[in-house]
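Record 1 of the preview.
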Amino acid sequence: MDVFVYGTLTDPDRVGTVVESFVFVGPAVLEGCRPVVGRYPTLVPGGETAGRLLRTPDIDALDAHEGVETGPYVRVSVSRTDGGTVAVYVGDPDELVDGDGPGGGLAADERPTEWPGDGPFADRVRRYLDAEAVVVRPQRS
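->
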C-alpha cells in the first residue's frame, strides 16, 4: 500500500523501526491540507503539505504506530492525481498541538484551524477531504 508521509515517517531510519519492509517511491504534495507541529505533526484544512510516498505491505504496523485504534490518528484514503488512492494519517490537533511540543509549541495566534462540522474527528476529516477534493500529487524526482 502507498502512504503519504509528511512528518517523522519521512526519515528512512524512523520508518525502519516501525515496518519490516518499505521503499520510498518519490516526493509528493498533499493539496488541501497544511502541516502543524506540536507534540507530533498533523494536518489541518487548507494549504498544502510536502511529503513522500512510502510503499509498504505493513499497514497494520503503521496503524499501530500511529494509534489508529486507540490514539489521536485516523487513516484516510485520498485520491492521487495520477490515478488510484493513497493512505494518509491525520491526527486530531486538539490532542497533538498543545504547546508542549518540540520547539516550545505554538503561540495562540498559530493555533491550527478546526476540522469543520460536527461529530467525531474521523467523520469531520473524511467529510472535509471529500467536499474539498483533497488530492495527493506525486512529483517527479
